[in-house]
Amino acid sequence: MEKQQSIIEFQRPFLSGRRTSAVLSILVMGAGQLNNRQYGKGIALMLLHFTGLYAVIAKLPHAVWALVTLGEKPTRLEKVGKLYQQVMGDHSIYLLVEGLIMIFLMFLLLAVYVQNIRDAYHCARLREEGVPLHTFRQTLHFLLDYRFPQIAIAIPVLGVVFFTVMPIVFMILLAFTDFTRSHMPPAQLINWHGLETFRDIFRLRVWSETFYGVTLWTLIWAVASTLTCFGAGFIIALAVQQKDIRFKKFWRTIFILPYAIPLFVSTLILRNVFNGQFGPVNDYLELMGFGRVPWLSDPEWAKLTLVLVNMLLGFPVIMLMIIGVLSTIPGDMYEAADIDGADGLQKLRLITFPTVMYTMMPILIMQFVANINNFNVIYLLTGGNPVNGNYQFAGHTDILITWLYKLSMEQGQYNFASVIGIFIFVLLSGFAIWSIRRTKSFKEERL
Amino acid sequence: MTNRSLRKTVRLTSSYVLLSLAALFCIYPALWVLLSSFRPGDMLFSETLLPTSFTLLHYKQLFENYPFAEWYINTFKIAMISTAISTVLVMMTGYVFSMFRFTGRKNLMSMLLALGLFPGFMSMIAVYILLNQMNLLNTHAAVIIVSAAAAPLFFLFSKSYFDTIPRSLVEAARIDGAGHLNTFFRMILPLSKPLLVYVVLMNFTGPFTDFIFARLVLRTPEKKTLAVGLYDIVTDRTKLQFTMFAAGCVLIAVPITALFLLLQRYLVAGLTSGAEKG
């Protein structure tokens, strides 16, 4: 009994009161933990505190200045002695990114800081109630055992934050600047100019006409390419899976071929195959006495060719998935249907199709979303061409994403590109999250 | 011939015709590029489908005029390292989301899914500057880091797969004293071979096909990957050498295609089991 007493005595915090520990941790990270006699944790946090404090004092004002002004000194010629020399000014884009990185790090630090206060308070309370606290080693074990999901997910999430989230925030910010090729650092500084770019896209005729036209084609393209891939995949899967079709494996292998060849290679190949002047397709058509078809040079034909090519490249995956679904349909359902005197079409309509649709629906929606962003096929096959005179930097077959690419990479209209990017993002993420939240895999939640 | 067997013959014949036609469309581009790569001269144009004479000159030219062997090595190096990292990250993310319940889980999942939809190159300028700050421009590490960092965004497929593994199995392993990592590597991974094959394959083909980002980062010829090199060959307006491009296509497509055909069995299993759960 006496021994027990002395242990508790030994474990008592230096200064009692959970508030005290919390306040100490507010003042200096880790101080509350030291007060609770948790030395390892306390020292680690304290080290972090001083590193963080240094960063805040040394770097944060500069970061805020950078984000607010985007640089003040332009690159200019200055007289040094008798010669004029180019003096580098502030590089707005670098300042923007550096500022953002700093802000993100600060948020990270803030999160640790808040946790540190909560921890100090919580541990001090446990102390008061006489519960022995974890040693440093026990803390580590506890983390690995009971906080495993958070720790395991932290690494990928950190990567995503710095290589995806941060760049996206950067891009969103660009939409509010005047960053274009004619306004390009380091020669010039870029400035904030609010919603002007958004206004231009909807108000200026050249821009709004392109915007609506391209959006419309994007949606048509997404619907058409999703449906054709699904239709072709479904038909081929049905044909292959018929009971009396022979060489099933052979057929499946052949149909996987377009999927197995890297998309970028096969698209470039098909661009040549459909070439109007020397492509073999037109050669054969001519040999057979038909005229040459402007596969890629006529706007309507180009659109059709795109859907066709996309179907050819996309149906194998769908086919494989549908074959998988088909094999799960119990055979006695068909037998029962046979006894009831159903014909093939009825069986297809009433048994096969609903079952396939049930499992394929979420995938179809995802495919639709992915097709809105299907950059590769369009960029590699037509490059958005043929040119459309009424469009601002876009061709007839450009979808939003390829238009965006042209705007940023080829035309240097970064702020306009950013607005399009935001638009695509809003369109897609709303749609995707809505549909995914409805899928079984998201709803399941076995506990 | 009875009515019934006549209908069966019609159905089978039309099925075979349909399948053969589709097969023709699938094989033709591959066959055409293969034959073109052996055709003498620069142009793809020819009067006959089968070339009258064969040459290996274009393959030789690829290795002589361009550092093609180096591109090959680069691509494999990048593909292997980034596949290893990406696969672990994707599997881990899917596993955690599937097996554990913790606060913020659903929001985090939605966030990652939405981010995965974001057009990658929109943020390329920022990534470029970030890499510049880290002194990683024109290095393979840059390509590896960026592709590995984006990999967890595509966790949904692996999560759906893991959802099918009974959690009682995991709990049993935990009760027997296996740590989380042990459970994951010793039990979960072997159980999900089709998924693993699928994820590896998808990540492996990435570096073979990505040329937009890689082209931005990899500047000097000896650092390029196959996709970047080949794209630059085919878009070089000064000399259009289609036959050489065809030879390059064959060389890129062969390893990937072989891998696909080799792993077909797993691929089908992986795809279908992921699909079933939707």
Automatic annotation (TrEMBL), chain B:
Record domain ABC transmembrane type-1: where? 72-263
Q: Write one Pfam family the protein is assigned to.
A: BPD_transp_1
Q: Which CDD domains match?
A: TM_PBP2 (cd06261)
Q: Which keywords describe this protein according to UniProt? A: Cell membrane, Membrane, Sugar transport, Transmembrane, Transmembrane helix, Transport
Key word Cell membrane present in the record?
A: yes
Q: Name one GO molecular function term.
A: ABC-type maltose transporter activity
Q: According to its record, how does it sit in the membrane?
A: Multi-pass membrane protein
GO cellular component terms, semicolon-separated: plasma membrane
Gene Ontology biological-process annotations: maltodextrin transmembrane transport
In terms of InterPro entries, this protein maps to: BP-dep_ABC_trans_perm, MetI-like, MetI-like_sf
Q: Give the UniProt subcellular location, in the record's own words.
A: Cell membrane
Top-rank lineage group of the source organism? Bacteria
Membrane-spanning segments? 12-35, 78-100, 112-131, 137-157, 195-218, 242-263
Family from the record: Belongs to the binding-protein-dependent transport system permease family. MalFG subfamily.
User: What PANTHER family is this protein classified in?
Assistant: MALTOSE TRANSPORT SYSTEM PERMEASE-RELATED, MALTOSE_MALTODEXTRIN TRANSPORT SYSTEM PERMEASE PROTEIN MALG
Q: What is this protein called?
A: Arabinogalactan ABC transporter permease
Please give the organism: Paenibacillus durus (Paenibacillus azotofixans)
